Automatic annotation (TrEMBL):
Residues 1-16 form the signal peptide. GO terms for cellular component: extracellular region. Belongs to the glycosyl hydrolase 3 family. PANTHER family: BETA-D-XYLOSIDASE 5-RELATED (PTHR42721:SF3), SUGAR HYDROLASE-RELATED (PTHR42721). The lineage of its organism: Eukaryota, Viridiplantae, Streptophyta, Embryophyta, Tracheophyta. This is Fibronectin type III-like domain-containing protein. Its main location: secreted. GO terms for molecular function: alpha-L-arabinofuranosidase activity; xylan 1,4-beta-xylosidase activity.
Amino acid sequence: MAMNLRYLLLFSLCLGLLDVLIRVRPDVLIFVGASSVPHACSPPHASFKFCDSSLPVKDRVNDLVSMLTLEEKVMQLVNKAAGIPRLGIPPYEWWGEALHGVSNGGPSTTFGGSVPGATSFPQVILSAASFNVSLWKAIGQVVSTEARAMYNEGLSGLTFWSPNINIYRDPRWGRGQETPGEDPLLSSEYAINFVRGLQDVDGSSSNRIKVAACCKHYTAYDLENWQGVDRFHFDAKVTQQDLGDTYQPPFKNCIVNGNAACVMCSYNRVNGVPSCVDKNLLTGTVREQWGLNGYVVSDCDSVEVLYDDVHYTQSPLDAVADSILAGLNINCGNFLASYTAKAVAQGKLSEKEVDESLSNAYTVLMRLGYFDGNPLSQEHFGMLSASDVCTVEHRKLALDASRQGIVLLKNSPTHGLPLSHTTTKTLAVIGPNADASTTMIGNYAGIPCKYTTPLEGLASYGAKVVYEPGCTDVACTSSKMIDAAVKTAVLADAVVLIMGLDQSQEREGFDRSSLSLPGHQIDLIMQVASSSRGRNKPISLVIMSGGPVDVGFAVNLPEISSILWVGYPGEAGGQAIAEIIFGDHHPGGRLPMSWYPESYTEIPMTDMHMRPDPSRGYPGRTYRFYNKGDAIYEFGHGLSFTTFFHRKLSAPFEIALHEKQNINSLQTSNHGEEFLLEKVDCASSSFNLRTVVKNKGNRKGDHVVMAFWHASKEHISNGAPKKQLMAFRRILGLDPEQETEVLFNLNVCEHLSYVGNNGRKLLGIGVQKITIGDVEHHVHVHHRRSLNL
Ligand SMILES: *[C@@H]1O[C@H](CO)[C@@H](O)[C@H](O)[C@H]1NC(C)=O
């Protein structure tokens, strides 16, 4: 987000003036707390029809829009909406961020005074690793409660541009950390649950919303800057096939099943057209097909970018007109305020189209209760205040989220984790992330309630902790401090190496060019490891990072007894790490993205194809398609301190597909037989999958059950994924010998389908494999023409 400084300055001056004008009115001083902030529909401006909360939202919006002049309207189409002083409507700042906690990354939110900080959850990629849908919803609920409390305190707005649900296509992407990973089903479930946590009032979807979420960045946005190609200029060449079953599903689910009140169009072009002026994408798909009840916002300055930087339109007027006509409603930036009136005057768009944009935006504010007067007097959230931020329960949830997400990648049965409380007298804690604080909260964070660093967490366990950073920072450009670290390690009973990345290595605007640990980090690890060769000393390698790193060097190194990936684990991350290392919590997280060797970086980051292309040696992307077979750890990998076994209980051996109409729409190609999904009666193609999970080890443990679909070879050669997550469920703490049954309700159309190269959904006919852990099941999908329609 690169705001134009000129406009920022201009606008803050205007806002300052309005503030003073409104502030001298005696009526707004009645309420304490939020009193310094004026509210729409407060006396003496409360008697307008649009202020009457008993009327339908639509009527109120129409009334409000009908009272405005064109000049007034265009000033509301930008993130710093000017407000309408004559109607008592104060300026509104649309831009807020709440990716994993209320953040001050957007101008609507300020920390200080009554709210010095807010609960800072793990960066999204780690929460995703929990595979726990109720956790994602619970996080959303806490974030929206804290946001409402801050709104009541005059410290925040009600519209937030989160979550980021772009598919994590390439491990180098600097913003992969913000996303739920590489799988469309996982990303969709994350989106639905987090958005509903943010938005739902009283736990249900309704017209009334708690705060407004925003699904971003629509669409096919997952590159910051690779070899001089930046996100502003990048033209993502995406096939209809990949759009259909990879790039679009998270957005569709975010809107259709999450009911998100907003979509943000991205900076990049999609097949030549900047997404913010793509009428097919914005109006055709988002508004008409998916039924968005809300507003479309641009990324910050992306309308300006598509004119100024990309020269996609001939004039700023065209950029503005084209984007509004395509379906854009609010512009982060100032282009729409500056040029829309002129564009209307020149006939490039009509005032009616401006009204439509504004109506979509105002509908969201109405649903938020923004036009219901002072928030402190409002029914649902008026009681929330500073004391509802950083509560004990909220901070516990932040801790629980990092516990649930942390992934055990490797563990030695003889001298691995957990460490013994009693025999670990001296613990060496080494590495540039050992004393991490801000690093733990990643990007799009706020100010946390309180940090517990890894060092603090580990020190609380009673062993004598000796700390050596080994490098001055994660870049680790010098090897000078390695000797001291090795000496410390030699004298300790156990060693914890806390290595990895931070925002200097991966961030917005900055992709990695290497998957290796930076600088001398590997030297440090190897020297510590070799210093204890043959001693069976526990040496844990902890990787704190958003994106995956090439840990291939450590996977088979016997001296490294365990490897943990801890993401950016949030404000309480240090405690969660320590609890897992000492066995007070048993890890159950699974990787939401695959980990590859450094050689992966030979693939051009700009190649958006998900499917492999053997003719040019292109291996494809993610566990669903990548065919080189050299992933270090694949999507879904994660160990436990105990051992789980799956047993198949029941699953169908054959599934008959019924056609909707009594015509034979079976297609036969050299790839085998397949059905166009649109011709199949999907309602009759559901089936149940039952499995039993048993803890056969001798420790308690959480477990994630994952069911995968494996298409047949013929269909894979026609573009079906070689492996595809169909369903998952996290199971809470099973004791040794305890077992539990898991039931998945599945549907062939939804879970055993893929998109063909013409962009239409296909169902493969024939024998297909389903796996849950080690359990394999074969199901024969065949067709039976229905006799009656
Ligand atoms: C999922 O997360 C919620 C919220 O933290 C927690 O109460 C629940 O026990 C978790 N479920 C599992 C199966 O771990």
